[in-house]
């Protein structure tokens, strides 16, 4: 019965608001829906469906529940270190470098990439496209303002990723917040993009899509892999999350493995 209720809720969201969550992994969707049902003090998922159809504010809350906001500067430092040592040397001679950060959330990993490129002398000829389904996340990312509470961890991550300077050079502390230097946004484009319904919009040398695919079912994962494949230049690099991979996908034979631990691949056909 609950599965029927969830299917009807997701169909109603798609028809009424145009957001398509029907291919998301059921356990993830169940957790987020139950959270919203409890917060709204509703008796059932069907009652939530009725409410979101008549109250856009509740739909906005549920949309935020579905958005994936777990991130930090230089998250998984070893991944960024491999980018620095094994990927950047292979693209150094390119006249322009295009990078797509998929599911960029509030921007911490985007600024991490900008710092990495800057320290390797590649930032001036790079363009980073940072996309997310959630406009609220993008608004926060554009500001480049983060809580000072995370800076100790972020600094440690930065040095573990091979950081070459004092991390504090990249931001200014103002009260309980830090503001990152404006030049780190100069070559970044923040834009809304929905992996489920939108298409490719450029050809990229590097695509970072970490910890996004784990929230999708198998069918949707293959659909997104098709989009990523079409968006990546030949010999371009794809970075996935630690619990993700390409081995059992529809495009598993289209890449060579660059680093098995960090889930970094290079398109070879």
UniProtKB/TrEMBL annotation:
Pfam families recorded: CheR, CheR_N
Entry-linked PROSITE patterns: CHER
Residues of the CheR-type methyltransferase domain: 1-268
InterPro entries the record matches: Bact_Chemotaxis_MeTrfase (IPR050903), CheR_C (IPR022642), CheR_MeTrfase (IPR000780), CheR_N (IPR022641), SAM-dependent_MTases_sf (IPR029063)
Domain of life, per lineage: Bacteria
Alphabetical list of SMART domains matching this protein: MeTrc
GO molecular function, one term: S-adenosylmethionine-dependent methyltransferase activity
PANTHER family (alphabetical): CHEMOTAXIS PROTEIN, CHEMOTAXIS PROTEIN METHYLTRANSFERASE
Protein name as annotated: Protein-glutamate O-methyltransferase CheR
Originating species: Halalkalibacter alkaliphilus
């Amino acid at each position: 019965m609950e599965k029927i209720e969830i299917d009807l809720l997701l169909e109603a969201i798609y028809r009424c608001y145009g957001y398509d969550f029907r291919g998301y992994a059921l356990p993830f969707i169940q957790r987020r829906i139950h959270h919203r049902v409890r917060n709204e003090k509703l008796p059932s998922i069907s009652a939530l469906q009725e409410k979101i159809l008549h109250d856009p504010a509740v739909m906005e809350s549920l949309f935020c529940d579905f958005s994936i906001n777990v991130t930090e500067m230089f998250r998984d430092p070893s991944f960024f270190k491999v980018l620095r040592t094994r990927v950047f040397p292979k693209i150094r001679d390119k006249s322009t470098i295009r990078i797509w950060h998929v599911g960029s959330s509030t921007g911490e990993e985007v600024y991490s990439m900008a710092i990495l490129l800057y320290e390797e002398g590649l930032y001036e000829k790079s363009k980073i496209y940072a996309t997310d389904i959630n406009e609220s996340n993008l608004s926060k990312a554009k500001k480049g303002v983060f809580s000072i509470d995370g800076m100790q961890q972020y600094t440690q991550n930065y040095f573990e990723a091979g950081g070459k300077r004092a991390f504090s050079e990249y931001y200014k502390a103002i009260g309980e917040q830090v503001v990152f230097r404006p030049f780190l946004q100069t070559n970044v484009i923040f834009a809304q993009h929905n992996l489920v319904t939108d298409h490719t919009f450029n050809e990229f040398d590097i695509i970072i899509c970490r910890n996004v695919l784990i929230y999708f079912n198998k069918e949707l994962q293959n659909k997104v892999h098709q989009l990523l494949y079409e968006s990546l230049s030949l010999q371009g690099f794809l970075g996935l999350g630690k619990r993700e991979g390409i081995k059992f996908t529809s495009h598993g034979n289209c890449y060579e493995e660059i680093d098995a631990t960090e889930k970094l691949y290079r398109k070879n056909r």
